[in-house]
Amino acid sequence: MEPLLVAQSVAKSFGDVPALRGVSLQVPEGQVFGLLGPNGSGKSTLMKLILGLLPPDQGSVRVAGMDTRQRPVDVRRIVGYVPETPRLYEFLTGIEYLDFVADMHRLDPGEKKERIGQFLKALELEGRGDELISGYSQGMRQKLAIIAALLHRPRLLILDEPLNGLDPRSAKVVKDTIHGLAKEGVAVLFSTHVLEIAEAICDRIAVIDHGQVVAVGTAAELRGKAGMPQSTLEDVFLTLTGTGDVRPIVEALLA
Amino acid sequence: MNPRTVVRMARVLVRSQLRATGTARGGRVRFFRKPSFLLVLDVLAFLGSILLGWAYLVVDLALATPDQVAAATLQGMAAMPFLMTFATVLVGIMFEVNVPTSVVSTDLVNWLPISPGEYVAASASSLAYVYSPILAGMLGGALIPALSASLIGIWILLAVLALLGLFTGALAVEVLRAFMNRLSSIMYRRGGRTAMAVRLVVLVLLFAGFQLVFNTGFLLVLAGTAGGGAGVLAVIPPMWASLAVTSFAAGDLLVGILFFALTAALVVALALAAVGLRRKYWVPLPVSVKLGGVGYAPRTGVLGRLGFAPPEAALIRKDLRALTRRREMAGILAIPAIVVVSLVAVTFSEPPSDRYATILYWALPVMGALGFYVLALGMSSVGQEGGAVWNLYVSPLSPRELVRAKAGLVLVPVLPVAALGCVLLILVLAPSVRGMLAVVVATFGICFTGTFTGLLLAMKHPDFSETVRSRFVSVTISMTAFPLGALVFVAVAGPYALYMSMPFAGMGADVLFAVASAVSLSFAIGLTVLFYRICVGRAKRLLQAFPL
Fold it and tell me: What ipTM score was computed for the predicted complex, to two decimals?
């Protein structure tokens, strides 16, 4: 059976600047797949291609056997997405925003009310639901975006730095939720800069650099590939992306 | 005040306006997005209007005596500085004050070492530069008639006064911006649904009031009502530049110099007021606003009963909330008030002399206001999503649903108002059955075609950026939309206007009316269907590639 998410030889350029060069990856149901890479390595672009937000120049992306370019609406019915910096409708209240998202996914009115209430309570937004989003902190917006991505029970969850701005307790709730969803069979594609989080949450990790997958596997497999079995994931990451020695940069900044 | 800082800041603001669309990713900046493009536009507008001025002279004034040519030229030239101010205030209200509060409060300028004075000077200068093609067009149009009437000295003076008129308008817009910040701060502190509604009403009144203060027709009526005739104009500040032109032309140098000095003093006073207000009301602070109420949509609401699918209804509800809660949308809501005020004020000084004029006198404000409103709202409907547009891209929303929802946003609130407008026209004009039919066909035809004209532009050229000078459609489109809307307006309502203006009698009237109705209906239905189909195609393309 085909994995839930299959990206094959995906390439994308913006003008003359190549963002992705033939990236392939597969995420089966129930797996948390991490994307690691330095800034500008192509992680967010890859996520947008998977969502069908951008057309690939080459290659294809299939979600549950559906090509994201040919059946974008059907794909979006089963995908939940949290962008790196979620821009929300500031003139809506938290509840109005979630109600809007639930209606876009045609959720039953009774079910949507129940799920919105549950999520608001779990992420400690219960008493703030009737406030305009314009007054929300970054963490509250992030929580709202995460709730919006989960409301319609997606089969594939795409999370671009989802723990940005969250307090430790909320981050723990989100991490445990991701684990719980994976156990229920949800495939999760997860991008982060925090290597400890990647190691703790992800079943498999792909390291992306300059638009290419330079290594893929479990954290232990990545250490093996880098020939650094006892090192931290940070050292492995820096070695794999060829950015190990940062001393000249620090010296230049301090000069 | 550091002039270099002002120039640099003004350059950034002009670029922000020209590049607002934000779709050029990783590409080179095209020429028409560079400030120098506006200089080319200035030259083109100047040269083009020289031709128009020449054509006016040889066609319209071909049989006029030199004195008549001089009088007509002088009349036109005297009106130009005032028209410049009026036009700048009008476009300022429509396009320049729609900055989201979040952008105003986090804007780069708030934490750069720029003084309020420098910012106001830069902002007013950039506004004046962006709308300078209007000035170039006016001056070009007046040049040949002025040369022909030996008024070239007055023309040079006019150039200076019209430039002052342009800055008067630009600075008035700066004053308006500061008032809006103040208003937002007050309302944010209060919170609640009532405060949001009050803010909206006050903003609309503020816009309408500002437009009224700089409206020629209204001021002339005011002058007439005051009983002083032309003499009263001297106490109306926006008229001083025009009085300077006429005084110099009449050889009254002392009075001319006085009005010239007063015009310059008006610019300085507005600049000081704008700087003072900006210093005081620099930033509206977004604080927590509790609205109360549950906020869940009902199982089958009014929109559901009207035939909208749940995603369409959700989108319409969300956009209607945006319309009433976002201060940058108040400019669009104020359009009907502005158009009605403009048209009524202009025609008020000359009451209609016959039945035909009476019909136009009443029908134009109603249909014009509706037409402008649906066009502006349709045009802004896509770009107003701003940075939050990703919400639509990750939702299972088809292109058809997007178009239906955006059309619903315009038509759902407008159609009841259009029906009221028809009732008003029918009550006031007491027309025959034919007249009633014409009113209904033209009014609803304008609503539908105007909506889809606006939507067409919005789907093709949306501007999702939320910058200091963001718009909801690209800058070029926002300038060409209204002439296009006027063409559609004429196509739908024109056949009836032609029918009314034709002298006829007997059986011919019925045939002519049937022809006018058929043509009007054909245009209304044909354009609506055509534009709807194009919109769906454009929406499909729009949803294929995330624009930000």
Answer: 0.87
